[in-house]
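Batch job 17 of 40 flagged for manual review because the log was empty.
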Amino acid sequence: MFKKVISFFFKSKNILCIIAFFWLVVIGTYKPWKQNLVVNDVVSYYGYLPAKFIFNDIKLENKEHRVAGNDFPFWPEIAPNGGKVIKTTMGLSFLYAPFFFIGHVLAPAFHQPQDGLSPPYQISLVFGCLFYVLLGFYFLRKLLRSYFSEKVSSLTMISVFFGTNLLWYSSINGLMSHGYLFSMLTVFIYLVVKWHRKPKVKTAVFIGLAGGLITLIRPTMLIAFFIFVLFDVYNKQSLTEKIKLFQKHFLHLIVIGICTVLMIFPQLLYWKYITGNWLFFSYQGERFYFNQPHLVQGLFGFRKGWLLYTPVMAFAVIGIFYVRKHLRSFFLPVIIIFPLMVYVLLSWWAWWYGGGFGLRAFVDFYGLFALPMACFYKQILESANSKIRKGLYAIVALFIYLNLFQTWQYNKGIIHYDAMTKEAYFSVFLSKNSEHLFEYLSDPNYKKAKAGLPEIYTQEEIREIRPEDRINLKGSNFKITGYDNSTEVMANFYEMVQPETFSIAFSGNGNKITIKAGNGKFVCADHSIGEKLIANRDQAGAWETFELIYLGDNKVALKAYNNKYVSIHPEEPFGLFADGDTISYPQTFRIFINEF
């Protein structure tokens, strides 16, 4: 019986059914459409469709785009000519479109509004993700089976889906770009192989369309064309033959170029229509820092380290050394694109790519990384003894279990989306609760990272805070400190916005400060009401003066006039009181300068 089960799992055709079944179980369990999935980056990826087909306002000129009483969250960038530009390129909208229109047609039948956000749209888009993921694995199987055995192909497919964060980005968070790019890049690679085996104009057309589409989803994916250029080049003779092949089928190269441009042209036309320029960099104020890539943090760091949160991909890295032996046609594409991709992605100012599970930007290339992974598996399964092979299966199973468990942890908030540290990671490792997680988290400093600066403030930078600077303080409960209508200061806000900002003025050469709230009043540790912090004083005196103590890692403590440290009380509404005898976790605050 056990052998039959194992045999079933090692038939690559069955893997597609297993993936679909598991996906349906996950989706049926969590029902992600019950909450709006058009959030964060998806707002921009998806925005083209409702802008054009629901509001008929691709220029976003109308003041209101109302959905269920709320404005549709387009969040456009403003071009120099005043035009409102959707931030991301429109490639994902092309892939969303069939399922958007299915939802649009079904909405009236289920008595739901045709607003782009009602349940028929959300459910249709979710199942659209399944379609594209299965499409990607269908072509990954065809690609793997053309070079590797059933066992190697199946183990690779199982590892890529169940052992990586592709699982998260193809199910619960399936409207993000990564699952789609994995699938489209896999299709592109398959077409490259097919053209080299038997060059046809039809295949060249599809290569251009697929390559143009992945570039339209994410412009940096243009590096995928190196796969086409470098494929089947592994020595001097093969280079000569590749040049001859390109010369013989030069018309095909022209066709690929034309089809690529045709796919990208709608974006160029959109930019021209909105901004007056054919090319427009819509990521205003954001950039790559190629002189300071975060290679170690990106690969091994506890915030988002790729190989830490997706350890099964270590087999793909090791497999690079076996590509020349087992898959020499991909030798140059792998050894050139892999380090180039790592370097480019980890040179982005937010090398951790905001909130998400693991280093999500790497998911886009899993179709390519599956090839060196398969080379590694082939080397072990065909060359090692039975004990080593069984050991490999055990390690893969452990890595898959870890990924499934950490995916569950991430969904439950036990793994934080962007603030993990070494201490935080091990405090929740294989744990079902996050009791002490907040004690160890460390927020990224987005403002400093965007400027290409170290994220940690120095003591001198803290000392140079000016009264005109706007300060946010995040409490030990990971909520923003602000004040309510009664002027009580408390740590129960979620966003760094105007009411939750303060100004700090240093007095003299010491660390004595006064704190002024957004209402123009000084913060006081009012001894008449139990040293509760309130923002209602017109003038600063002794009880309105605090000592600012810098603790490192952008953390500070505040000591009031009564020589007590400001603490956050552990229950709602998380009021602040000057009653701490020592500096422990409840007496610490993360400081942000001009983040708002």
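Reviewer: the log was empty due to a logging misconfiguration, but the result itself is present. DSSP finds 22 helices and 16 strands in the chain. Unflagging and moving on to job 18.
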